[in-house]
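Workshop exercise sheet. Pairs work together: one partner reads the sequence aloud, the other fills in the structure field after running the prediction. Swap roles for the next sheet.
Pair: D.N. / O.F.
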Amino acid sequence: QVKLVESGGGLVQPGGSLRLSCAASGIGFNIAVMRWYRQAPGKERELVAGISGGSTNYADSVKGRFTISRDNAKNTVYLQMNSLKPEDTAVYYCNAKLPAREYWGQGTQVTVAS
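Structure field:
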């Protein structure tokens, strides 16, 4: 059974930091392209960051503030979010893309407010 379990969301003040984690099980984690998406109320889901092997990519809106990383020994992908802004408020989803299909986590809420 495939499971992606996100954690680390919460309420933070503008300028603060959070680290999201996504623990994967039931998939070939080492070969998966791992990505973080987010969806704000009334908006479409958007790609935030992705990591494949040693390569990473980021949405322009988070470059220089967010860092994606992975620990293949723990089957876990992380999203370090610094200098958070109110517009970063959204539900953040972990995504695992394999050759045959992709999988989604349930999401974790991030709220940036003073």
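Discussion prompt: The first strand starts at residue 3 and ends at 7. What would you look at next?
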